[in-house]
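To: structure subgroup
Subject: Chain for Friday's discussion

All,

I'm putting the inputs and outputs inline so they're searchable in the archive.
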Amino acid sequence: MRNFIRLLRGKPVELSAKQEERMARMQARSDAQIAKGEAEARAGMAEAARISGGAVNVGPGGPALPQEIPTSIPSVREMVKQSVEGFRDVFGEMFDDRAGVIDPGPDRDFNRPPSEVEDELERARIVAAERSARDAARAAYRAPEVPETAFTRIVTTGSAQLEDVVAHLRASGLSARPERVYGVYRVPDRMDLGRHDERRTYLEWGIAHRPGGLPAAQDDVASTVFHRETHWVRRRPGEPSVLDEDVAGTFCNRARLGPEDCFALTRLMHVEARSSDTSGMDWYGHVEGALVLARPSPALARAHAEMVTEAPLALPARPELPFHLEILDWEAVAAWVAPGRLREARVPSPVPHLPSDWEELLLAYLEVVGVRSEDCYGVQPTRSAWSAGLGDLSAAGLGTLRSPGKRACADGKARERLNATEHVVLAYRDRPDYQEGRARWRAYQEEVLHARLDHRTDKRPPIEIDDHPRQSFRSEVADFLNPLDPVQALPQIFGRNAPEPLAPYCGAVVR
């Protein structure tokens, strides 16, 4: 949008290094097509000269033939097809930035996925066959001991979600056995698409845990929340950003909270809609902060009170955390296998060696690394962006997707589901055998998945913000009244001097 406005105002467009690389690829393709066309034209001229018996110079810059050469005009259908395919290639290259994460191989085209199968029985057969092949390919990389993992869904609403989660932990008996829990998390899907906020919206939470029945328990579960808007950490522009787990991990260190006493270290998020005059609803995923669910102890309240008193904290760029933090890029996979936010995964899959959903990716990591529940602080599907539009993940090949439809929910009803998962995040106490497991995971990624899904792990991008003094109100009015200015934005009247957020957990700056 910024470059579009600069273009309208007659200013040069500023491209990032990644965009410059894409433009170079597009230019190289265009040059190759032009060279091919010129070569074919010279070959045609030479053939015409041979037929007419005349000597014609057909090299670059040579004279044109003195007579008209009959040519065959392609059909309108073929011309339209070529134009659509060319636009699809260019559109896919310009807007897909996952080329460095997924390597599908030379025989697969991101812009031309196979057409979907419509018959439900045939779809189920294909899905089962693809999953079986992926499981077999992973067998050689599994840990020597792989604990069983079960996934349970909890039905709740936005206003009662935390209370319902605690009630389920008690009813299932897990409130007395946190060491059997890998993690508790909000399922990022959004249902009830006719509502803007989530207070009365149907939601689902998930629990990843060891299977097996337990008697109901009455043990309490303590919840501690760290909001992103609170100034917890001292940072300046240009310094590394702060992850949700940096703040929550600092809390765990101070409270001496071990994974055997922790149910969840998770990002608390919601998905809301904003009205648009032209396209109905625009969807946004927001991470509100970090949530820690644990066995109650006086140390938890004491650690939280200390952090409140000492905030903003002077944390190092990479804090000493009590866990290894893994961030897996699910959206890079979904752009291939499930690019439509409101649709199921493609069947057949364009890249059948990749997981078809985030739950399969999470399970694959646990199996290969061999992570045990008693070492887990939390596992979750979630998002990272502070606020981001939730459009389809790729425009390439969307025309081959099935129409959106309702899908089964945990309460047995069918609803529209908007998929908002961006990452799969795991936090677990490290051990030497887990370090060996991560070596297997890297080999599995390279040799089977042909992907680098852990490229975000241990990355904290620098904080970027425009901290220059803003334009004066008088100048904004003058620009608005200037008939020669193509971009006539309304002057801001209210909140001109309001602090601007610096970054999550880092407070705000006054411009």
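Points worth raising on Friday:
The radius of gyration is 28 Å.
The longest strand covers residues 262-276.

D.
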